[in-house]
Amino acid sequence: MNDTSRRIVVVDDDPSVRRGLERLLKSAGYQVETQASAREFLGSGDYDRASCLVLDVRMPGQSGLELQTVLEEAGYHIPVIFITGHGDIPMAVRAIKAGAVDFLTKPFDDQTFLDAVSQAIAKDRRPRRADTLSSE
What we know:
By secondary structure, the protein is an alpha/beta fold. It has a single domain, classed as Response regulator (Rossmann fold, 3-Layer(aba) Sandwich). Helix content is 48%, strand content 19%. The protein contains 5 helices and 5 strands, in the order E-H-E-H-E-H-E-H-E-H. The protein has a 5-stranded parallel beta sheet, with helices on both faces. The longest helix is centred in the C-terminal third of the chain and has 26 residues. The chain is globular.
């Protein structure tokens, strides 16, 4: 599903991962923004523009799991896909229970990743559509 009106934000401390995912997502027709840390993302302050967050689990400072919690507690319900090279089952369960769309371990298949993004975009549309209908 190509949807250039949707912005995917990739937050990962590894520049090569950010570049690779940015290229992949742009080739699939998405608008992409990358951030090197949770702090950098939070500093941008423009959370409503994100239709999907791709978060590395382990980053210096604040982890992706901690960022997910901060956003949820602040009332931002942005679909999240976690990516990690060091995941385990309890970590995956925690992420999914907190509302993550998917939890992928590196290296992952490009199509599997794009399918997760598509699912996250679809999840993001439902609340926006419901808000639009209720305001009419």
